[in-house]
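Exercise 7 asks you to align residues with tokens for two separate proteins.
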Amino acid sequence: MFCRLTIKSAGRWRNGASYLHIQAQGGARSLAASRGQQVRVEHLLAALLDQGTPEVLDALSQAGLDRVAVRQAALAALGLPASQPAITFEPVTAAGTLDRPALPVGELNQRAWAVLRWRQDHLPIGRLRRRRDTEALIHLERDAVWRLSGRLALDDDQRFSLTHHHEAAVDEVVRRARIDVARQDGQTAHAELRALAFRRIRRRRRLPLLRFTVGWGAWLSNRRVQIWDRWFRLRTLDAYRGTPQP
């Protein structure tokens, strides 16, 4: 029974939550190591139960099993007391960061996504004059996602996934309307400024008397981007009048 339930849950996770499955495997290894044991299916079952994801709870419900009773039986099979503390898991990388893909649009918070869809339809495209404006627009929209996520108390999976999908949508709108100022090859204006500052720093390193100024170029470039972002925000305030509330 333990094997069937564990394999069923793990098999379902491979299709949509592999990172949670990896987290459960890490918890199982941690539990086994704390007892000097080899990892067994009961360790993984205990980890799955302590993790308590909807998939596992649904599998228990369909099998007509009580979560507490199954956990106690798994621990007993490992020679552990029923009072064994719950497993502490390593945090999972947020969706939409590093190598973990963003959540699908269908799994996004619909209240937040509705507001962002409205913003996508009301972007101040007419105010874009140069690529620097496009980068400022991206920064403006990214800040809007983070404010919205904070207001709705969304987790990092939602926050970064919303940012990913919204930024892609904004890029697409700009590309269709103003290809001349659209971002190209993933190179942003901010990255270009950082690269320029780095080249200047390298040149200064050849002059010993100017080494104390190393870092000024990057600082000034960052300040320049921040000032331009604020100026662009002021120029586009009227475009977002009537923004719906989540």
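Second protein for Exercise 7:
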Amino acid sequence: MSYSVTWLLLLSGVRVAVQDGASAGDAAILRTITHLPRLLWALLWLAGTLEAVLIGGRILLLRA
């Protein structure tokens, strides 16, 4: 059960990063603070979630 929940959480992070993307409210706040484009923040979030899936998936598959 916990194995399935972990996969669900890992993959839902990617879904949220793709779905919200540059339109996320956090991207607007970070843009005003850092003057970096919202799209850059969205790409950084997507890269981070994909990296988490790779690392977490490797750990889950090796321990299964």
